[in-house]
Amino acid sequence: MTLEQTLKQATVEIFNQQFNAAISADAITINITNPDHEGDFTIVAFPLVKFSKKSPEQTAQLLGEQLKEKTDVIANFNVIKGFLNLTLTDSYWLGRLNEISANTAFGTFPSNGQKVVLEYCGPNTNKPLHIGHVRNMLLGFSMSEILKATGHEVTKVNIYNDRGIAICKSMVAYTRYANGATPQSTGIKGDHFMGDWYVKFNEVVNEEMKALPNPPADKDEAQKLTPIFKEAQELLLKWEAGDPETVALWKKMNDWVYQGFQQTFKLLGVDFQKDYYESETYKLGKDLVNEGLEKNIFYKRKDGAVAVDLTPEGLDEKVLLRADGTSIYITQDLATAKLRHEEFNMDKMVYVVANEQDYHFKVLKLALQKLGYKWADGIYHLSYALVESPTGRFKSREGKTADADDLISEVLRIAEEKTKELGKIEGFTAEEANVLYRTIGLGALKYFVLRVNPYKKIIFNPEESIDFHGHTGPFIQYTNARIAAIMRKAGGGTSLDNLSGYSLTAVERELIILMSEYENVVKSASDKYDPSEVANYAYNLARTYNKFYHESPILSAPTDEEKRVRVALSSETGVVLKKAMKLLGIDVPEKM
User: 190 burial class (0-12, 13-18, 19+ CB within 10 angstroms)?
Assistant: First the structure.
């Protein structure tokens, strides 16, 4: 039984005995005490006054007296208005430290039988991954780790938007101007190579529009009149008709892109258990739309398009299939969702996609629910805000959105530069130093992104992310390295037996309380789909440990008891820090 459960059960019994009131444990709120007040945990008395028929202060005072009498874990208490602040005994907290140390599975939960399919990344194959994909991938990977830690069976999937006019644009530009060049012959990474031809297409379109006689004022309409755009449309028709030469070129260029993507995935440490391709699923969605038509759930408009009326749900009319019978994103998403349920029979289907698609996922869920698919109730859109870069911080290939690879390269460059400046590679071989630069740089990038609630916008500053003393990944990494150095000197962990009379200092107590909260933090992050709760917890734990380190002699502690407690505190802080950072996909070096 946890401490919270113990206190709640004792409170229930006290109210039953003192006031003949049958209260529910759910009516009792227990929080960590505000740092400005004395105490470890606080019970809120206000909801209980209707049972005690006394003032909040009187209720809290009586409850404090009874809890101290009936349990052996409360050293003292104080009442501030309707808040009962409880200070637990040092022996309780030392016992708690022992429990955490003995439990190698601390911070993980048993299987809950829930299956989750989590989709993240979802790139287009006509251009490189960009800064938005970085946030997407880091959120997706971290949430998969957090969900696994809380007992879910997670399958990570990716979908490639690998068909359509955008891909044909790159193909036309390549056919016209490449002269047989390849990523290998040019030394350009595959996805960037494809993206360069997409850029080239747009350059040519703009030039050809200038030559149009009396072009339409609307730029999109004017583009359609250019020779190169017409070639792209013809290529799309050939692809859809299965023209062998066109399909062969499409496969070759997409393979280049996939090879480039894999390099970025490997560098970031993200992975997928299954890939889906829009080219393989877009036709399947038409069957679902026809099913909805037959059931009169969907309807055909006068122009021939198939739509669903979502006005009763506060949305509007949504087209699911164009008038010419061609599919759109929602068509293939309907099919892919059904396909995944048939494959995995999941309870939850989580989509990690930017907030500009909030409407799309509301429609997807409602359309599937209207089709009678009960499993659609488990669809969840993990919506996140944009990532922006300070002007001029790192280049953008298209002048709009920073490429993921450019961002990563910049972070790694700054990590190497700052690490050398601070002299944190003394005694390292060249290979060890390079591993450290990468560990610090990627840790900085991942932490800076994940420490922010997904719903909030990020302005990413590479230099700010690599600060060994700030609210950053490198600060936490350095804290772990400091702990590892202490443990090497200490020669391992120590026993906490026979410490019944030990008096904890304020910061020692604070460290144990923080470590005890780790499980609750992981559970909360899982329930809220918010890795920032784990990220900020890791920072608070590292910051508290550094306060402890500066205030408390560890290896040179005055007594053997103090040394044993402080080495144990150091050891377990390191263990919990590593667990938290692992959930964020961040490696922590043992030496730096």
Answer: buried
